[in-house]
Design goal:
Number of helices: 6
Protein name: Siderophore-interacting protein
Distance between the termini: 10 Å
Structural class: alpha/beta
Radius of gyration: 18 Å
InterPro entries: Cbr1-like_FAD-bd_dom, FAD-bd_FR_type, Riboflavin_synthase-like_b-brl
Largest sheet: 5 strands, antiparallel
Shape: globular
Number of strands: 13
Length: 236
């Protein structure tokens, strides 16, 4: 779905874009990371790993976010938000409080998980923490060997621990993942163990692009990638 829609087109959708979920709980994992629990009718939603929901953040603006946890029986789901900058999406999410109602679409998009691969590697940043949290139970249930790499700002480096993620390494967000030479020195590439793996790369589009190039040059495994944001780009 596009990031903005003209008012005349919004009118055509009518009640389809009316509030359909309610905020029932808010937890701050850091000053920038906000976990919100919503409640609504999600009985027909498809929560495949990697799918994203569209949230209406203003009269004409929409943004994509991934669900971190869901319970269809109770009609609840969590989204972990990275609040930064002065964008309309961040401002809207920052303003939400318990009992607020808003529109969130059913998830859709690109899958990131391939069950048949024994080795699973995941790369991301703050915008990817929800996907990592969602995929962890599957990785453990299916007895995968897995590894998470995160590039995080200093104030967010403890969030993976708070989320009880496992087998993760946190790297400083200093553009290292945009350096092909540095990427090639990562422990991941120093053993043949990970040559045939499922690689899920999400988060900053530039970091994802460079990491993907290194993997393709090495002809390693199955690569699934999705850029969630890019500096200077609105509504990616």
């Amino acid at each position: 779905m596009i990031s903005s829609i003209p008012k005349w087109m919004i009118a055509l959708f009518g009640n389809k874009l009316s509030p359909n979920v309610t905020v029932i709980e808010i937890t701050f994992l850091s000053l920038q990371i906000k976990k919100i629990r919503f409640q609504g009718d999600i009985s027909e939603w498809d929560f495949s790993i990697g799918y994203a929901s569209v949230i209406r953040v203003s009269e004409t603006e929409f943004r994509n976010y991934t669900v971190a946890y869901h319970n269809k029986e109770n009609g609840v789901f969590d989204i972990i938000f990275h609040i930064h900058g002065n964008g309309v999406g961040s401002k809207f999410i920052e303003s939400l409080k318990v009992s607020d109602e808003l529109f969130i679409s059913p998830p859709r998009g690109k899958k990131l998980y391939e069950q048949n691969e024994q080795h699973q590697f995941f790369f991301g940043d703050e915008t990817s923490l929800g996907v990592a949290f969602a995929i962890l139970p599957l990785l453990k249930k299916n007895n995968h060997q897995f590894q998470f790499y995160f590039e995080l700002d200093e104030e967010n480096k403890s969030v993976p621990e708070l989320l009880e993620l496992e087998n993760y390494t946190v790297f400083a967000k200093n553009n290292s993942f945009r350096n092909e030479k540095w990427l090639n020195t990562l422990p991941l590439f120093q053993t043949q163990e990970w040559n045939k793996s499922n690689f899920a790369l999400v988060g900053n589009a530039k970091s994802v692009q460079i990491f993907r190039k290194v993997l393709k040059d090495k002809k390693q495994g199955n690569i699934y990638s999705q850029g969630y944001w890019l500096e200077g780009k609105k509504g990616l």
